[in-house]
Design goal:
Strand content: 25-35%
Shape: flat
CATH topology: Alpha-Beta Plaits
Oligomer: single chain
Order of helices and strands: EHHEEEEHEH
Number of domains: 1
Number of helices: 4
Radius of gyration: 17 Å
Amino acid sequence: MKYLCLVCYEETSMRTLPEADFEALVEESVALKDELAESGQYLAAEALQSVDTATTVRVRDGRVDVTDGPFAETKEQIGGFLLIEAKDLNEAISIATRLPPIRYGCIEVRPIAPMGCEEALKAKMSRGDTK
């Protein structure tokens, strides 16, 4: 099963990280990526630019609203992601605990909904079923 690991941390803390610590973090991250790729568990990963570059887009009643900045004002921001293949949530969590940025924030782990389930989701939402 595919899982998305959202890497969240306080940008201000990362900006003040000593250069040697940041370089070590990058090296550890690349080494883990290589290990996961070798085992077939790595699918994709990217870092995101600063939250200062974020744009939020909403459409309500046919009206487009574009706002500078992230969707929500929070202490931690999404700084990147890792898409992995894992046999279950426990294995995905185990991988998430090994991601070096976890030392500076948290990793949110979510299973990916398989494509083709859109109709089932629409039907569920139209019934007001949120479980």
